[in-house]
Design goal:
- The protein starts with a helix and ends in a 5-residue tail after the last strand.
- The strands form 2 sheets. A 5-stranded mixed beta sheet has the order 2-3-1-6-7, sandwiched between helices.
- Helix 3 crosses helix 7, helix 3 crosses helix 8 and helix 6 packs across helix 8.
- The chain has 355 residues and is α+β, with helices and mostly antiparallel strands.
- It contains 13 helices and 7 strands.
- Helix content is 65%, strand content 10%.
Length: 355
C-alpha cells in the first residue's frame, strides 16, 4: 500500500498541503485545539466512540453487507482507533497526510462504496461533536472552538479520502482497460495464428498479401510470394504417425520463420504447405531467401520423439505484376511450385524460368 501512497506524492507536496490547509482555515492555532481534543475528548472515551460507531453501522443493511466478517470488523476497529488517536495531531505534516491516504486505501480496498464512506465520516463527526457538547456541559467549558476544529480537520481527512477513492477507481478502470486490451490482443492472436505451427494462419497471410499488393502499387515496390511444400510428407505421416508429422511441421515452420526477415510474413497455407510474403524484394534477393529456407530445412535432420527425420522442401516463387490479385499471384507461385516438383523436388523455381 505504501507504493500506492507514493503514487499520490503530488498530493502531499509542501505547497499542496499549505494550499489545502489554507482553504479549510486550519492554522497554527489549531494545533493546540488538536491536543485538547485528543486529551479531553478522544482519549477518555475512545473505546465508547468506536463501539457507538460500529453499533450504528451494523444496524444498517448496506453497511452489514460489507461488515459480515468478524475478523474484518476487528481489524477495522483497530484502524479506526488509530485514526481517532491521531486525529488532528500534526495535521500539517507529511506523515499525517500519508497516514490519511493509507486509511482511504484501506476502505477502498474493502470495497465500501464512497457514498457509504462519506456517511460513515458524517456519523463519526456527529459522535465527536456530541462528546464535545457533553464535556462542555460537564466541565462548563466552551464547545464552539473544538467543534469548529472537528469540522475543519474532518473535512481535511475526508478530502484526502476522496482523493484515494478517486485514484483507486481510476486505477481499477485503467486495469480493466488493460485487461480488455490484453484479452483482445490474445483473441486477435488466436484468430490469426495457425494453432499447430504458431505461424500466421491462411486468412492472415492472405490478408497480408492483399494489403501488400495495394501498398506496393502506391509505393512502386516489388513483392514476391513463395509457395513452399514439404516433399513426400505423406510418407512421414504413414511411417511415423500423424503426431510425429505434426512435430515435423512445427519444426519446419520455425526454420522457415528464422530464415526470413522481420518485415516478411510466413503462414501455413494448408496441410504441409506454407506461404511466405517477401516485401520490397527483387527476384535475386527472393531466390536467395528461398534457397536459405530450403537449405535450413533440408541440410539437417529434425529430431522428434527420439527420431532423426530428414525432410526437403520444394519452393515456387512469383513476383507481383500490375493488376495482380492475391489469387493470380499465388496461382503463379503454385505453378512454379509444380514445376519444382516435376523437376525432381528439393529445389526453388521462379515462375517464368531461371533468373
Amino acid at each position: 500500500m505504501m507504493g500506492r501512497v507514493k503514487e499520490l506524492s503530488h498530493l502531499v507536496a509542501p505547497e499542496h498541503r499549505r494550499a489545502r490547509l489554507e482553504q479549510l482555515g486550519l492554522t497554527e492555532a489549531d494545533h493546540a485545539l488538536a491536543v485538547e481534543l485528543h486529551d479531553h475528548v478522544i482519549a477518555p472515551s475512545q473505546a465508547a466512540i468506536i463501539d457507538d460507531f460500529y453499533d450504528f453501522l451494523l444496524e444498517n443493511d448496506e453497511y452489514r453487507a460489507f461488515l459480515h466478517d468478524p475478523e474484518l470488523i476487528r481489524r477495522l476497529k483497530i484502524s479506526q482507533s488509530d485514526y481517532l488517536l491521531g486525529l488532528g495531531l500534526g495535521f500539517g505534516s507529511l506523515e499525517y497526510w500519508q497516514g490519511r491516504l493509507r486509511i482511504g486505501f484501506t476502505h477502498a480496498r474493502v470495497g465500501l462504496p464512497l457514498s457509504l464512506y462519506v456517511c460513515a465520516y458524517h456519523r463519526m463527526q456527529g459522535l465527536l461533536l456530541a462528546r464535545i457538547e457533553e464535556r462542555a456541559e460537564a466541565e462548563h467549558t466552551p464547545a464552539e472552538p473544538l467543534k469548529a476544529f472537528v469540522l475543519k480537520i474532518m473535512s481535511l481527512d475526508m478530502s484526502l479520502a476522496l482523493e484515494t477513492y478517486h485514484y483507486a477507481e481510476v486505477s481499477s478502470l485503467e486495469q480493466s482497460l488493460d485487461d480488455l486490451r490484453g484479452e483482445g490482443e490474445h483473441l486477435r492472436t488466436l484468430a490469426t495464428t495457425d494453432p499447430l505451427t504458431g505461424v500466421a494462419n491462411r486468412k492472415r497471410v492472405l490478408d497480408e498479401v492483399t494489403l501488400e499488393l495495394a501498398d506496393s502499387r502506391r509505393a512502386a515496390e516489388r513483392i514476391v510470394v513463395l509457395m513452399i511444400d514439404l516433399d513426400h510428407f505423406k510418407m512421414v505421416n504413414d511411417t511415423y504417425g500423424h503426431l510425429v508429422g505434426d512435430d515435423v511441421l512445427r519444426h519446419v515452420a520455425t526454420r522457415i520463420q528464422t530464415s526470413i526477415r522481420t518485415i516478411d510474413t510466413v503462414g501455413r497455407y494448408g496441410g504441409e504447405e506454407f506461404l511466405v510474403l517477401l516485401t520490397d524484394t527483387n527476384q535475386a534477393s527472393a531466390m536467395e531467401i528461398a534457397e536459405r529456407i530450403r537449405r535450413k530445412v533440408g541440410d539437417s535432420h529434425i529430431a522428434v520423439s527420439g527420431l532423426d527425420i530428414g525432410v526437403t522442401l520444394s519452393v515456387g516463387l512469383a513476383e507481383a505484376r500490375d493488376g495482380d490479385t492475391p489469387a493470380t499471384l499465388i496461382a503463379r507461385a503454385d505453378h512454379a511450385l509444380y514445376d519444382a516438383k516435376t523437376r525432381g523436388r528439393n529445389q526453388s523455381v521462379f515462375h517464368g524460368g531461371p533468373l
